[in-house]
UniProtKB/TrEMBL annotation, chain A:
UniProt-listed Enzyme Commission number(s): 2.7.13.3
Pfam families registered for this protein in UniProt: HATPase_c_2
Keyword tags: ATP-binding, Kinase, Nucleotide-binding, Serine/threonine-protein kinase, Transferase
Residue span, Histidine kinase/HSP90-like ATPase domain: 8-136
Protein name listed in UniProt: ATP-binding protein
UniProt lineage: Bacteria, Bacillati, Actinomycetota, Actinomycetes, Kitasatosporales
Residue ranges, annotated region (Disordered): 76-108
Acidic residues compositional bias, start-end: 99-108
Segments traversing the membrane: none
Enzyme class: transferase
GO molecular function: ATP binding; protein histidine kinase activity
UniProtKB/TrEMBL annotation, chain B:
Phosphoprotein found in the keyword field: yes
Alphabetical UniProt keywords: Phosphoprotein
NCBIfam families on file: ant_ant_sig
Species, as recorded: Streptomyces inusitatus
Alphabetized Pfam families for the sequence: STAS (PF01740)
Function: Positive regulator of sigma-B activity. Non-phosphorylated RsbV binds to RsbW, preventing its association with sigma-B. When phosphorylated, releases RsbW, which is then free to complex with and inactivate sigma-B.
Gene3D superfamilies referenced in this protein's UniProt entry, alphabetically: STAS domain
Record-stated family: Belongs to the anti-sigma-factor antagonist family.
PROSITE patterns tied to this protein: STAS (PS50801)
Name by which UniProt lists this protein: Anti-sigma factor antagonist
Domain STAS: 19-116
SUPFAM superfamilies from the UniProt entry: SpoIIaa-like
Amino acid sequence: MATVELRFSAQPEHVRTARLVAAAVARRAGVDEAVLDEVRLAVGEACSRAVGLHRGHGITAPVRVVLTDEDKTFSIEVGDEVPGPGADGRTASGPRDAAEEDADGEDDMGLAVISGLVDDLEVSSTDVGGVIRMSWPVTPVSVLP
Amino acid sequence: MDLSLSTRNVSGPVGDRTVVEVGGEIDVYTAPKLREQLVELVNDGSYHLVVDMEGVDFLDSTGLGVLVGGLKRVRAHEGSLRLVCNQERILKIFRITGLTKVFPIHNTVEEAVAATD
């Protein structure tokens, strides 16, 4: 089992970096080429959501992405540090300002895209933060001598 | 790759259309630029927009949100927002979010410009 972990400041410009790293690690892990676009999109959605949550709640901690290459699956966990609904009485989508009025429902749309793309998906939320866990099957690759 | 935007006016059989040619990646970082462009066009009186997405390499839900916002704005002026897209990877995102029912999606700019409401 091999793991690549990435932490980045909750800034939109770093989401692209996370997508590129995730796609590179997924390709190396043996995720089918045809599925890499989905991996790229799903991890981008999860990271965009986490960045939005951190910024909306004024959290300075970085967003965490863990890419794990297991025997038969490749998994990605994207973690935020925003307590889940119920912990502080606010919804997970956080406060909004007028500038975001066009983006109504964007967090929900991000999750809708992820759930449409990823069959093996878990979204969990605790009082220390939320985690989106996604995994894809890996095509076994022959090991070079 | 960053986002590239260019606009041009086209006279079609059913009136003038503003074609917004988008290239590169539309994501959480670049989508605000597209939003500004669409808002500016509507504020300047362009209510019939054709967004050409043939040069788009990546689109996420933030980009979808901006397009929906653009549609909302032009509809407030009885306008239209049509998309041009042939790329399966991009079309898939519209399908899984059900937005193929919201946006008219065309194969070519010419077809979108000639389309009637």
